Amino acid sequence: MNPQELLRIVDSLHREKQISPDLVIQAIESALVTAIKRQFGEETEVTASIARDGGQITVTVDGKSLSQDEIGRIGAQTAKQVIIQKLKEAERDARLDEFYPQVGQLVTGVVQRTEKGLTIIQLGNVEAILPRSEQIPGESYHNGSRVRAVIYEVKQSGNRVKIILSRTHPSFVQRLFEQEIPEISEDVIRVNAISREPGYRSKVAVSSSDQRIDCVGACVGMRGNRIKNVTGELAGERIDIVRWSDDPMVLIPNALQPAEVEQVLLCDMIGRAIALVNEEHLSQAIGRFGQNVRLASKLCGWDIEIMTAAELERQIEKAMEMFLSIDGMSEEVAQQLVEQGYLSYDDLSVIEPDALMEMGGWTEEQVDAIVMQAEERAEQQEVQEAERKQTEKAERERLATEELDRKERAQKAPPAPPAEPEPPKEDENGTESST
Prior knowledge:
This protein has 435 residues and is of the alpha+beta class. Among the domains are: 3-98, 2-Layer Sandwich (N Utilization Substance Protein A, Chain:P, domain 4); 103-166, CATH 2.40.50.140; 245-306, K homology (KH) domain (GMP Synthetase, Chain A, domain 3, 2-Layer Sandwich), CATH 3.30.300; 311-387, DNA polymerase, domain 1. Helices cover 48% and strands 22% of the residues. Helix 14 packs across helix 15 (364-412). It is elongated and about 110 Å long.
């Protein structure tokens, strides 16, 4: 390769692709050594250097310099391969620099095709992937249609950049809120937390920095127009907008809406909250398949349990009985434990030893003995519960099998013969009559 031509190409890469000239020259030198060793043997001692000012290539093999003809033939091919490689790396790095800052941001692309559950989305001159796991359940995408999603991940894959999109991540809901609700983009209303089960239901907690603005009303919009635009993009996913509070005693009842909560009991040490509701709001607080309480728990960061006052009373009585059965436990400490929300052996097994020592005035050895008993009984209960579930499952399967057998026998049974006509009846005068 002509030395001046080599330097010209290196300089062009530097200016157009922002690749360091030294980096390219070092890569060519290294590739030359590899190529020459492949030709002369891996045990050969090879050195290769390129003059930074003139571009001349010098190569030695076992201390002897190669002729310029030999260097030119090997060097031209090697330089070409290195330059192609560096161009690919430069394009990759440019894409990484472009899309890394966009992680979590909303983008719009055009559907190109679907391959094995992956939907390929064109973003400008780059292809991105929308995996099945990041698609809203029940959605389908047609070639040429426009799709909105957030950039979920950007990662290097060899010389390529893999851009993964998501329509199921909670940030997708947040970006749609920012787009539809100007007060959020203006920082007047803040989205504090989001919990989501894609395609079914989301809870969004919001707050306002301006007391004159109702954060919930602003998100809903006039006649619900704003929230309708968001749910329309989410394939009809239901969205509960919740008023945020730093006080969990306020936030938890808000998060469980539309159910009404009578009282909240917090157990700070194990992160549990017991929400008391009356019987008529019990199913509403729990939600279909437990969805309402599950989303509320994620939104608030508390493990929320829904109970009626009567259920709590029964749980407390049962917990007192369990705790008092532990050797060394006092009634006073057992009472303190249930008042703080500890209602099972499992709860007691994770309590901080220092807290238990302070409650009962016990030594570390006494606390260890109590906790050990609680752990053993928790394991026993877990085994018993697993056995109970297994028994129930077997019983359900038995009943289902019997029902199937009954239906099969009914299908195989021969049809009943047609009923014979009844003989004519005679009236009082002996005349036959038909009915």
